[in-house]
User: What shape does this take?
Amino acid sequence: MTKTLLLLGGARYALPVIDAAHNLGARVVTCDYLPGNYAHRFSDGYVNASIVDREAVLSAARSVRADGIMSFAADPGVISAAYAAEELGLPFQGPYESVCILQSKDRFRAFLRDNGFNCPDQRAFGSVAEAAAAAGSIAYPVIAKPVDSAGSKGCSRVDSPEGLAAAVEEALSFSISGGCIVERFLEKQGDSSDADAFCLNGDFECVSFTSQLFDTSCPNPYTPAAYAMPASMPAWAQTELSSELQRLAGLLGLRDGVFNVETRVATDGKAYIMEVAPRGGGNRLCEMLRFATGGRIDLVRAAVQAALGMPVDGVGEPEFDGFWYQEMLHAGRTGTFRGISYAPGFCAAHVAEEQLWIAPGERVEAFTAANHAFGSVFLRFESHEELDEFLAEGGRFMRVEVE
Assistant: This one.
């Protein structure tokens, strides 16, 4: 009997999930409140419902007789997916209560602190007035974040009490529940990591790390713009963080599925788990890992298998085939996209895949959040030295043309 996957969200990031499900013989029904979203044309059915409305998602799952439910790269739908899965007895990455902890930055920070994980000091606010009253008692610099938003939307650094109210107002404007956290800004030691991991039978069988890279010329310098694999993070930190993720999995009862994990080593010499979200990353990180391991690790396929209660394959610790770089194509300012230019011979030697989601002549927005990316390019290098040369002088080899 054909299995049915209910997939929350209809953005382009859903396409690999749809393809993987079809290759496994399953049908896919997509669900959100935007019938014109790109991915819906590739699914086998569509339900119009808000993915943040957990009762509406539960009703959708019942109506299509879903065998599994995912909110792969759609952070707003994760809690609804977990709720519907628990109500219907379907597989999911963890119990509903654990997912709620992971998806709420203030609750997650409290969980980390209470269980002895490295954790920055933080405070939660529900209004600008609350934050303004506390501004003088906070040690700066800090970063203000919505408690329930992803893709760096609404995040900003604050270096003095005078800037706190505006930052909190911005963070609250992106929060579904109307809350934000203000936490100590952890200066990085080297590159931070944003990567996908996979839990199987309660164990993190795959933990990948990246060098998470930023474009400081953009209006929001805290929005990830590119990634490199293997990661530059020290081996001791990767080992410690993998162990701490396993401890976290045990405490929260995490189960089979993909998790987007953000980590960093701070200038205090400590390794920190910053985020653990029960979904695939929105910046094609599972696909990057598949490229970088020569196709041996396919976390998209594994995630679909787990969601549908099928035997899982394609999971393991990464062994890299070369040195890899992915750039989320973006613009430092609002303007008109004219194309991508490469140095002679560079494209043939290094471009593994280029995806453009717009055509030359279309308008692009300044890169202030992940949803302003308009494509992606994967590059492969034979050596660390080649990759380092590109990272040092990327504009000499590849340039996004915006007028």
Notes: DSSP finds 13 helices and 20 strands in the chain.
